[in-house]
């Protein structure tokens, strides 16, 4: 009986001694690993996806200011047709509040927002028209490269890998000078239109 009691106490003591010290170092390293993994995941997500923002001069996957991808042009907003490609099927809208920016509306909903040459709007990462291709690739690695339709190489399109999913996605047009000429956020197939509504 005494031997059984001693063995039980020894087993409990050994279990306490061996499991506690082993767990204590593992927990911080697991937490650190988990935290690092989470930070990397968040970092990759923010790198690949413009974060939602209320800043009126920042374009996100959700939209720009009160103009939202997948929604109608807000009534009473400054966005309106101003002589550009008006039809029942597809139209473009602009706003005097956003020089150099236009949006394509199909089936009554905003399908794409484009930042052009005069635009001061940027992505949350600070990338805007005039940024270098190297800066784009630093923030948005893994984008699909395609030759530009109208300009010779090194001009190209860089399109987010999730574009075909139907969710809002990002697309850059890089000019022959290696700088961003246009930035588009929208849904396929409108995201890849190269001439306004086509």
Task: Please give the largest β-sheet.
Answer: 7 strands, antiparallel
DSSP summary: helix tally: 2
Question: Which class of the largest domain in CATH terms?
Answer: Mainly Beta
For the termini, the CA-CA separation is 89 Å
Q: Based on CA inertia axes, which overall geometry fits?
A: globular
How many distinct folded domains? 2
In short:
Helix content is 27%, strand content 24%. By secondary structure, it is α+β, with helices and mostly antiparallel strands. The longest helix has 47 residues, at 2-48.
Features:
alpha+beta, 2 helices, protein yfey like fold, 198 residues, 11 strands
Task: Provide an overview of this structure.
This protein is of the alpha+beta class and 198 residues long. The chain has two domains: 1-48; 58-192, protein yfey like fold. It contains two helices and eleven strands. The strands form three sheets. A seven-stranded antiparallel sheet has the order 4-5-6-11-10-9-8, with no helix packed on it. A hairpin with a 2-residue loop joins strand 2 and strand 3. Residues 1-49 have low confidence and may be disordered.
């Amino acid at each position: 009986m005494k031997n059984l009691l001693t063995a039980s106490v020894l087993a409990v003591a050994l279990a306490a001694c061996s499991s506690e010290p082993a767990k204590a170092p593992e927990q911080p390293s697991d937490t650190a690993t988990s935290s690092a993994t989470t930070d990397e995941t968040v970092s990759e997500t923010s790198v690949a996806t413009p974060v939602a923002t209320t800043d009126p001069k920042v374009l996100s996957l959700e939209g720009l200011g009160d103009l939202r991808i997948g929604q109608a042009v807000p009534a009473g907003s400054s966005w309106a047709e101003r002589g550009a490609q008006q039809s029942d099927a597809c139209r473009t809208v602009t706003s005097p509040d956003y020089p150099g920016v236009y949006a394509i509306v199909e089936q009554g909903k905003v399908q794409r927002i484009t930042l052009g040459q005069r635009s001061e709007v940027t992505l949350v990462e600070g990338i805007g028209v005039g940024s270098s291709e190297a800066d784009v690739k630093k923030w948005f690695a893994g984008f699909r490269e395609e030759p530009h339709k109208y300009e010779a190489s090194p001009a190209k399109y860089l399109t987010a890998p999730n574009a075909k999913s139907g969710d809002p996605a990002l697309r850059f047009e890089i000019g022959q000078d290696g700088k961003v000429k246009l930035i588009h956020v929208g849904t396929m197939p409108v995201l890849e239109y190269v001439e306004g509504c086509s």
